Fold:
Amino acid sequence: MAPSAPSINSVGSSRMATPRPSSYRHKSEKRGMTYNIMLVGQSGLGRRTFLNTLCEREVVPPPEAPNPETAHIADPMKFDTYEVTLEEEGTRISLTVIDTPGFGDGLDNTGCFKQLQDYIEAQFDEVLVEESRIKRNRRYRDHRIHALIYFIAPTGHSLRELDIELMRRLGEYVNILPVIGRADTLTVEELAVFKQNITRDLEYYKLPVYNFCWDDSDTEALEENREIMGLMPFSVVTCDEVLDNEYGSVRVRRYPWGTIEIDDESQCDFALLRYILLNSHIADMINFTEDVLYENYRTRKLEVGGFGEAEDDEEQDDEQDAAAGKSQE
Amino acid sequence: MSNADALGAPKPQPANGGIGIANLPNQLHKIVTKKGTNFSLMAVGESGTGKTTFINTLLTTELIEPIDDATRRKKQLDKTVDINIHKAELEEKMFSVKLNVVDTPGFGDYVDNNDCWLPVVDFIENQYEQYLRQEQQPVRKGIVDMRVHACLYFIRPNGHTLKPLDVRAMKAIGARVNLIPVIAKADTLSPAALRQFKKRVMDVIDAQNIRVYQPPVDSEDEHSTQRNKEIVAAMPFAIIGSDQEVKTEDGRRVKGRQYPWGVAEVENDQHCDFKKLRSLLIRTHMLDLISTTEEIHYDKYRTTQMKTRKFGEPKPRKADNKKFRDEEEALRKRFTEKVKLEENRFRQWEQKLIAERDRLNKDLEQEHNLVKQLESEIEAIQNSGSPNTKFFRK
Structure:
C-alpha cells in the first residue's frame, strides 16, 4: 500500500505511513525538529524552484541576470543556506536547506567533490567535538546533513560520469536521494526507460544511494519501502504558477500544448517525494544519519587517531558562537 | 517543326538580336541536376540533448541508430571525444545529395571537459587540409570533399545562460565553420522562459564575439525576405525532435512527443522552431551554407596556410590535446630512460674492451721489448765475435 500524498485540497486528511519513534535527542516542541537537507545538481535542473515548491512559498529569490561579459568564466561552487520553519501534520520542522550553485558548471569539475565531502565531514567533526566535551552545550544545533537530493539531468539515456562520481564519493557520508530534474521533458515511455537504465547503472557501479529498506524490523513498512525503492529515482517537475480553478488553487506548469499539475501523482513524483522527505521518512533519514553514517564516520576517525579532546572550554564556546552565527545567515 | 530541343525544353529565341547567353542558367541547371551535390553537417553537443533524434527527424529516416547500453556504459568512462561519420545518399525528384553527418559522442560528458572541443576543431581543419592538398595534386579528378558546411551546436536549456563550456567551444568552432546554435529539448521551457533564454544566449554571443551563421535576408521577392527575417529573428532555434507519429487531442496524426498533459508537435511553429531550422538547412539556405563555407571559411584557412607554407609542403603538427600531450611526455620519458640504460651498457662494454686492449697491448709491448733485447744481443754478439765463428756458436 503506497503512501499517498495529501493533496492541497484535502487539508483535513492526515495519514502516517510509518509511526514516528519518540526517542531521539534535540526534539523540542517549541523550536521544532532539526532537519538539514542539501541540494546538489548542475544549474538549470530546478534546484531553487524545487525548494520553493517544497516549502510552498518563495524561499529562494530568483537569481539576478547573469553578466554576458563573464559568461566564459565559471563561478566557483558555493554553499547557500536557507532556513524555513514548516508545519507538517502537526509537527514543526526547523528545516535548513543548503544549496550548492556552481556544482558541475565549470570546465573541470574534479574539485567539486572534495568541497562537498569536506563540508559534510566538517559537520560531523563539529558533532564529534561537541560529544567529547566535558560540559556539553544544551543549545547545540545539529548541522549534520540528513538527506542529499541529487538532481540528475534528464538525458533519457543513463548516468554520466559526474553523477557516478558524486554518488560514489558521498554515499558513505550522507543519505543520497537521486531525483530526475526537469522530468517534464521526458514522455511516459522515455521516463520508464530512463529510470530503468539508472537503476541498472546504480547496481552496476554499486552506488551507495539511500536504501529505504535499511530497517527491516517493521515488515509492513518494509513492503511500502520496497515499492518506494521501485520508483527511484523520483521524477520532479517544479511549479511555475498557481492557477485558481473551481476546485481551489492548483500548482501548475503551463506549455502551449498542455498544463502539468505538480501535485498529481500520475504526472510526476514530486508529491510523493515531498511526503517521504517531510512526513513519512523524516525519522528514518535522521536515524540513519545519526545511528549509522555518523557512527561509521566516528569509528573511522577515532581509529585513525589524531582527534584529540578539546582542552579549553572558552575557546570552544567562541568556536560554537562563530558556527551559530554562520547558520543564521 | 517544333521549337523544342531534344530534352523537351523550349528553344530560346534570341530576341532583338541577343546571342543567347540568357540561356546559360538553364544549361547550368541541367548540369547541376545531373551532378548532384555534396553536403556535410556536424552535430555537436552533450549526450542526451537529442542530436540523434533531430538528425533522424530532419531526414525522416533513421540515419543514426541509437547507441545500445553496453557501448554507452563503456563510453561513460572513456574520457575521449569521438568523431563518427554517417553517410547517406538522398534523392528527391531526380536530384541526389551525398549527405555526410558527423556526430561527436563524448563531448562535454565528463567531469573534466577541458579542451573537449579540440577534436571537433581538428576535424574541421583536417577536412580543409585534405581539400587543399587534393587541389594541389596534378590529377584533380575525383576530389573527395568532406568540408563541413554547417555545424549545429546543441545547447542544453538550463534556463539561465550559456555555460562556460558552450562559450569556449562555440568561439573556437564559429571561427572556422558556419555555426548554428540550437536550443535542444526546448519542450522543457515555458514560452516566457524560452524567450528570456534566447535573449540571454544572444547577449552572450554578442558580448563574447562568437561568430554564428548569419543567413542572407534580402532576396528577390517580398515573401522570401519576410520568411528570412522571421528565421533570423528566431535564432537560436528551439527544437523538439521526434521520429514517432502520435495523435493529438483533435485527432490529427503528427510527428510529436506525447505527454500525459498534451502533445508537443514538432512541425508546429507555436511549439518549436523546427520548421524554420529545416528551411534554413535544406529548403532555402543550403546553397548559401555551401558557398559561404567554400568562399569564406575555406578561403580564410587557405590564405593563412599558404602565407606560411610553401606549395606542397605538409602541414606542421601543433600541440595536441592535453591528455595526448601527457601520454606523449610519459612515452618520451620512458624512451629516454631506456636509451640511457642501453648507453650505459655499451659504455661499460666499451671500457671493458679498452681495458682488454690495453692489457693485450702491454703484453705485446713486453714481447716486443724482449724481442728487441734479443735482437740487440744478437747484434752485439755478431759485432763482437770473429767473422768466422759467427754462425757456429751453439
Strands of chain B lie at 37-44, 84-92, 95-103, 150-155, 179-183, 237-238, 245-247, 253-259, 262-265. Chain B has ten helices and nine strands. The two ends of chain B are 138 Å apart (CA to CA). Residues 132 and 302 of chain B are 7 Å apart (CA to CA).
